[in-house]
């Protein structure tokens, strides 16, 4: 089962990345789930307490008049004390800087203010997770955090620890910000492994039934979706909808979907950057989402979509046909042939040289002849012998899939700076796709149920915490 996100390689651009240290039990839920979870009551209550569900149970008035107090409770500085542990304004600043560095565009001041509030909530959750692990005698050691930080620096950023430290300082963040996040996620992983995972059961009958349905679905379309879910009640629906509209504006302006999902989404997929993994539309369990996703193309963003419990923003990451090889999984051997023009070259000369370039490319007899022919006209070549079709920009994918070995794409580039083509030198087509195994299905169902219980576990920690805001 494909668990990675395609990255643009040699001839494209790498996507933005933000700091992540994904815990094993927070991967790819089979469906959204959070909307239905909102209807579940917390079982059991202490004497003198009443457990209720839904805003109507509080008998809230439509017209609210707040009692005026000397201090406005809605104006809080971004610092807090969580069961005695302090979260400082600097902690918030460093985490916000980390997120802003992942954005391609400038973020408006009002959006930064909302982001700071969300970051504070995340830091509170991380603090509660670390405290709970310590209380359960499962503390995360400094050595474990340092090892995870070194792995992140090497694997995610290609840096040494010292280089990573310097990079974080250059963007206004700090190593401590990432290490704090790592400690919180490692602590949460331990808590789920001991207190949740052993009590999750998936029967063989459930797995067999789902496997049979998947086998019957061979040849149908499967979707990989990203989701940002914002919970809402009738009382705050208008405000949540406005927040969702602002998030969409930032995403369409070039904001990182992964970064926004991690900070704002209230679904269990948030830790995965909103990635729901591969699924069939029926697994969404929401007709509104199913209808929208069915009309989406890869890379398309839609929303906010109103569903029971709140609003969803969907990103179509990819699509594929179940049980059949995807042509975009073919591995290509490509040669890029390019000709650069000196700055200030007259337009007529640029046109003449471009025409000469195209004539030379058309006369090339495959990749074996390309290097010499390119050198004869002052062009250069670059080879990439192992790149998947899906790793290339979409504009090239359909063109390259239709080429025979030795043929080149139409010319592209930015005149009067340069002109280029890609020549296909070889292709290894993908093999047959077996689809998810019974073990894969079992693991996915278990992860989904663990994520559901984890939401309740975290909610209990928040409810029982003593939190003071400065």
From TrEMBL:
Keywords: Chaperone, Isomerase, Periplasm, Rotamase, Signal. It comes from the Bacteria. The lineage of its organism: Bacteria, Pseudomonadati, Pseudomonadota, Alphaproteobacteria, Sphingomonadales. It comes from Aurantiacibacter arachoides. This is Parvulin-like PPIase. The keyword Isomerase applies. The keyword Transferase does not apply. One of its GO terms (molecular function) is peptidyl-prolyl cis-trans isomerase activity. It holds the Pfam family SurA_N. PROSITE patterns: PPIC_PPIASE_2. Residues 220-318 form the PpiC domain.
